[in-house]
Write a structure and sequence with these properties.
With about 180 residues, the chain is mainly beta. The chain contains 4 helices and 12 strands, in the order βββββαββααβββββα. The relative contact order is 0.17.
Length: about 180
Amino acid sequence: MLNWNPFEYDGLVYDLSHLHPQVVRYTQPAKGGMPERYYDVQVIYSLHCFTCSYKPEERLVDDALAYSDSRETRRFDFHRYECSKHLPSIVRALPTSVCQHTKHGTFFTVKLLNPKTAIEENYEIYFRASRSGSKPPMVNLFVQSAYIRDTAHRQNQPSRKKVNFFVILHNTLVQKTLKPAPQ
């Protein structure tokens, strides 16, 4: 699993250890004669949680903002980084969040208070779930991206269809496909 190296810029160090892989245990309460269930989930965060794509003119201005993994290089995004500090607690609270399908996976939104403006913003976290090859099997939850839904992200809003987080976990473990949102 990938541990993110700290990012250094202009004499400051931005710690990314909050986005290191972690195992979270979710407990589904007993209901309707069904016993309590436990799900161990390996949470992995993408660099899209704290970076954004380069605009063509930006690479020429400040290449020191480059951050890479084994597949791509993107621009470190200070606002996404600050928001990413909330991701571990948001991920732990997924069972009480509204999860929704997209045609490519699932996502959910969380309202966060912007400390600079005191305005609530839609912070969207996109993730995929897959079954691990471990014994006993676990669920891998890959957080693909997380960002504030702003004017730069208005064009590709996905269709939304609610799905319970425990349904995602159960279906992933038993290898049952979730129906995607209608297009």
